[in-house]
Amino acid sequence: MIAASTYKRIPNIISRTSVKPTQFIRLVTTTKTPPSSSPTGLGNPSPKAVPIDKEDTEAPGFIKAKRAPFGIETKVYNNEGIEAQDDDKFLTPSPYPHPDFTEAGVYRVKFTHRPPVTVGDKVSYYGTMFCRKCFDFVTGYAVPPKDQPDKYIGTRWEMTEGKWMTRCIFLEAVAGIPGSVAGLIRHLHSLRMLTRDKAWIQTLNDEAYNERMHLLTFIKIGKPSWFTRTIIYVGQGVFTNLFFMVYLMNPKYCHRFVGYLEEEAVRTYTHLLAELNVPGKLPDFEKMIIPTIAVQYWDELTPESSFKDLILRIRADESKHREINHTFANLEQYVDRNPFALEIKGLDKPQPNNNLDVVRPEGWERKDLYL
Ligand SMILES: [Fe+2]
Ligand SMILES: [Fe+2]
């Protein structure tokens, strides 16, 4: 029997619509900033009084960092800065409640790769890698060899807190596009052809929402420069139109392309987590509080959760996007049901779901699915 998983979420939606009082009062009850970091030296001032918009990386509200030429660095907020701009007044219940991830599940996520087989797979994979290599070169990103973890310190390849934020903000701003475009195209297809969509749209919109929540969380931690904003602005125009056109012609390989992008997202967040595990490597992230918007979105996070706890959840989200998009690329577009959203009970073999208990990082093959 087929039952939309939306119905299963009703209790969850209800629980999320109730305001969590502890989260909303965190701004006035929880201050993790050490007294010594007060700009006045007179204890913790009112967070709202911090002048976070001063264009100076040494202004109260930001961590002190080296300035890049032309001011193109992303400035990272300190705890006072994060609290000062934590706009708890307008937090709304999530239209796509986040599934529960276990602690063991988020730690189990690792980088995996689906070897490209068909020509379409190869175009998708090498296209992804070409974009990634160009972006890495331009932004000065490299993963140091395991036996030389300090190889890039002091060079343009060293990853500082500001550079991590530039990378995360840019990539999340792009990552929210495919799910939204694909969802729109399938929505229009359903209207135009007077037919059911078999629940792909909700998962695609959920993915786009999830990526936007990553972005909204990161912009509470880092403030991108005029340069990054310009690249995001222009990049969105180009990528959205390109993805729209290609998705109309070949949705299957668009999902494969996104699957490979998500593989790279998992790789990047795994690198960030490895750096967070080295004491003193990213000291400003180690002692950072997380924004209220993240506490509200991920059920397992609390106001006391660390930046690492947050990145573990974001990496797990990327791993589910990887699995979902590789699976979608294996399915008959506009024919097969979405097995992540339409659940069939009582089957004799495992089927996909939105949690981390049963996963196929390289995507579920069509022959293994009841469709
Ligand atoms: Fe993301
Ligand atoms: Fe993603």
Automatic annotation (TrEMBL):
Binds 2 iron ions per subunit. Its cofactor is Fe cation. Its EC number is 1.-.-.-. Residues 30-47 have a biased composition (Low complexity). One of its GO terms (biological process) is alternative respiration. It is found in: Mitochondrion inner membrane. Residues 30-54 are annotated as: Disordered. Fe cation 1 binds at E172, E211, H214, E318. Keywords: Electron transport, Iron, Membrane, Metal-binding, Mitochondrion, Mitochondrion inner membrane, Oxidoreductase, Respiratory chain, Transit peptide, Transmembrane, Transmembrane helix, Transport. Fe cation 2 binds at E211, E262, E318, H321. GO terms for cellular component: mitochondrial inner membrane; respiratory chain complex. Pfam families: AOX (PF01786). It is a single-pass membrane protein. The chain crosses the membrane at residues 230-249. One of its GO terms (molecular function) is alternative oxidase activity. Belongs to the alternative oxidase family. PANTHER family: ALTERNATIVE OXIDASE. Catalyzes cyanide-resistant oxygen consumption. May increase respiration when the cytochrome respiratory pathway is restricted, or in response to low temperatures. This is Alternative oxidase. It comes from Candida maltosa (strain Xu316).
